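INFO batch 0412 | record 1 of 1 | parsing
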Amino acid sequence: MKNGSGSHWKERLEDWWIDSGLVRTTLGVALIVYLLVATVLGVIWSMEPDLFSVQEKAAERAEALNTQVKTGFTSTVTAIEITDTLLNKPGGYLGNDMTPPGVWLDNIPNWEFGALVQVRDFTRAMRKDFSRSQSQSTEDPDLAIAEPQFNFDSQSWAMPSTESEYRKGLKSLDSYLVRLADPAQPDAQFYARADNLRQWLLDVETRLGSLSQRLSASVGKKQLNINLAGDAAAQQSTPEAYDQEVKTPWREIDDTFYEARGTAWALSHLLHAVEVDFQDILKKKNAQVSLRQIVRELEATQETLLSPVVLNGGGFGFFANHSLVMASYITRANAAIADLRELLSKG
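INFO prediction complete | emitting tokens
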């Protein structure tokens, strides 16, 4: 009886081992297939969106609304298209992904953040400057909703998710565009004035200046503390060393590089739109060619990166330093924006 019972359990153990082996094999094959699919998707999702024609997008939207392209229409459509690209490109919005392959990717999330910051700055300018005739005028109700929505946490996974909050902002921008296009709703306005444009360009100049410094610091550099230069009575809360070494941590070098790429991508579109909506202002100041040169510098940053990684060679070293190349374009664009602001300030 004992021998029969032992044989029975032995057979059951062998059957279990065979069955579990099949399960392990099946799970192993499934895991390999999943990783292969995730890798392929990761490559596809890591492709940066192409540049688009802001005038064509504006014409398409005007046709859909059965209206004409008027002042502010192209700029609003461009902000909408940039945001829509962030949310609906291959893989969707990746900055808050918690599962493969999105969680493995960091280049595109940093690219997204660079573009997102430009959307935030531009919608803030629309809310506080472009849509208001003067400082005491009432802000537009749709833009008052859209602007804070885009400032929601860019990495929130759930309750609420980043995408859901940004889609609310996108919906409000769409509502503003519909009202702007409707002649029967004069409360929706876009004022193309030199002072409005100069104020937004100041924000752009500040953003690009910071990016340029972070990109240039990829190799590390010594610099003197000039934070209080030009004002003998100036003070700061915490003292800093007179001679400082500034260097971007090596783990953040590619992050800064792709953030700069996303910034330049979004900004080049917005400047194209500004050239349309502020055409008369720019023509009067003979500033169109200046703006076009800025766009040319920014679009040069969108060239295909042939290296599989962002190289960080020394400034005059054997290997390339992609961050310094990017910094050169960003710096030239930033200097040209400063010149354009000065030009717009003259009568």
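INFO post-check: The mean pLDDT is 88.
INFO record closed
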